[in-house]
């Protein structure tokens, strides 16, 4: 019996599937220029295979950490730990078959290569008893396996290239199936690319990349022009895991989204008469501190390792049924306690979910009523100050927010609660706190993103006070 992963449809509308077991044995290479849909393709593969196979994602831009809330991946911010801790985590990942996203966002190029080399080598060097099958997804693989020397130290380049070569050349016997994506085939080391047997080629414009892509697909050079004409999200697929002949694939939809989206045109603000003064001297924003608050401390490595190694809870003996009202009260109290705990805003929902289960059992609930997805939604609401009535009283607000990524639900509900109750507009500091960041700039970009999606409308009166309206609900905050 084979495990088929639905990737999308071909030109005739027929479903195109990826054989997961074959993929584990033959590896995959994805190529396409920026904006061709590579990350969307990887996200589709990860979402559709989640729960069937262990997944390890090396994420240079931090785009895949949104898988944590929806599918239970453990998100690890590499910049918070040293090399010894990263290697220790990688060993535990193999031992306990945990699906993780290693975010390298915030590290310089040399730091990313060094961290990826340590992490991959630790996965590769795991004891034979821990050689379980796992998909190892490496986005922007040309950064870690460059075809030539760059501006990084030669020692770091060799270590990173060696780790990538081990993954693609020798990883299969250890259960590691490399899935690598790159913008430029010409910049990717040939000995790394050559080990893949499955290919998904997206839009590319440079002749040298089109020629290499055509060679890998077994196409004649004159047919390579078709690669230039591919639309966004369309790929040519070939390989034993997908098709024995090149087939055009339109990648299907995904359920999660990256923290950063493609830029879209929005109206420019009206220029005030004193724009030159604003540019040259600036104007302090009312209500903002002179210095941003310090970022929350990173989660200790021991806690991350314990989360990776946590065994499944033992079966509980049947207990008398508790009234639904009492269950709802306990859940609300537990969520309020979790949110009130110091450092809670910076911890992923997948880790807090374990804390939630323990607290519920301590309160007398042998079977906590929420799964991870429902807990993530209730947690976002609790961070916004909503602990009761989420499914009825706030159903309209949830419906409006259904297009938002899950991590944006909390800030939206914070604004919605203030608007519904006629309270003052939440300041950027509060929005940033609910969003799990200390960056006021990120909070402002979040508000701008929601306004761009026409979910909210921001107004600033002549006194500089901001109010936010939710047109779909007819709610408006008081100016502040």
TrEMBL record:
Origin superkingdom = Bacteria
Q: Which InterPro entries match?
A: ATPase_Atu1862_pred, HerA-like, HerA_central, P-loop_NTPase
- Name the Gene3D superfamilies for this protein: P-loop containing nucleotide triphosphate hydrolases (3.40.50.300)
Q: What is the species of this protein?
A: Sphingomonas yantingensis
Q: Where is the Helicase HerA central domain?
A: 13-71
The record ties this protein, via Pfam families, to:
DUF87 (PF01935)
Q: What is the lineage of its organism?
A: Bacteria, Pseudomonadati, Pseudomonadota, Alphaproteobacteria, Sphingomonadales
Quote the protein name from its UniProt record: Helicase HerA central domain-containing protein
Which portions of this protein are annotated as coiled-coil regions?
Answer: none
């Amino acid at each position: 019996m084979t495990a088929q992963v639905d990737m999308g449809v071909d030109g005739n509308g027929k479903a195109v599937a990826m054989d997961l077991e074959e993929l584990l044995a033959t590896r995959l290479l994805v190529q396409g220029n920026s904006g061709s849909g590579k990350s969307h393709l990887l996200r589709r593969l990860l979402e559709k295979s989640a729960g069937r196979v262990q997944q390890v994602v090396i994420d240079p831009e931090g785009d895949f950490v949104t898988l944590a809330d929806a599918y239970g991946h453990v998100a690890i911010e590499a910049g918070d730990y040293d090399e010894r801790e990263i290697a220790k985590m990688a060993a535990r990942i193999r031992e306990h078959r945990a699906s993780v996203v290693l975010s390298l966002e915030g590290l310089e190029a040399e730091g990313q290569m060094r961290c990826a080399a340590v992490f991959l080598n630790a996965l590769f060097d795991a004891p034979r008893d821990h050689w379980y099958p796992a998909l190892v997804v490496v986005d922007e693989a040309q950064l870690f396996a460059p075809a030539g020397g760059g501006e990084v130290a030669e020692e770091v380049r060799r270590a990173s290239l060696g780790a990538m070569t081990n993954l693609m050349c020798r990883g299969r016997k250890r259960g590691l199936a490399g899935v690598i994506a790159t913008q430029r085939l010409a910049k990717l080391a040939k000995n790394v690319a050559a080990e893949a047997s499955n290919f998904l080629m997206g839009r590319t414009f440079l002749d040298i990349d089109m020629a290499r892509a055509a060679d890998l697909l077994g196409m004649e050079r004159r047919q390579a022009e078709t690669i230039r004409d591919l639309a966004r999200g369309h790929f040519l697929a070939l390989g034993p895991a997908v098709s024995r002949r090149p087939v055009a694939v339109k990648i299907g939809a995904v359920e999660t989204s990256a923290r950063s989206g493609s830029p879209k045109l929005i109206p420019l603000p009206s220029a005030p008469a004193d724009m030159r003064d604003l540019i040259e001297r600036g104007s302090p924003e009312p209500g903002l501190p002179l210095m941003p608050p310090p970022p929350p401390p990173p989660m200790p490595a021991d806690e991350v390792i314990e989360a990776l190694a946590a065994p499944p809870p033992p079966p509980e003996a049947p207990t008398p049924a508790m009234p639904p009202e009492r269950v709802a009260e306990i859940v609300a109290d537990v969520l309020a306690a979790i949110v009130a705990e110091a450092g809670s805003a910076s911890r992923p929902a997948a880790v807090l979910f374990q804390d939630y289960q323990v607290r519920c059992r301590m309160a007398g609930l042998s079977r906590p009523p929420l799964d991870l997805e429902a807990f993530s939604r209730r947690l976002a609401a609790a961070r916004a100050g909503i602990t009761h009535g989420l499914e009825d009283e706030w159903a309209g607000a949830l419906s409006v927010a259904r297009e938002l990524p899950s991590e944006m639900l909390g800030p939206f509900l914070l604004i919605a609660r203030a608007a519904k109750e006629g309270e003052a507009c939440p300041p950027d500091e509060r929005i940033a706190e609910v969003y799990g960041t200390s960056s006021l700039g990120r909070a402002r970009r979040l508000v701008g993103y929601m306004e761009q999606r026409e979910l909210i409308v921001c107004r600033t009166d002549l006194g500089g006070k901001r109010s936010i309206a939710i047109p779909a609900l007819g709610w408006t905050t008081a100016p502040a």
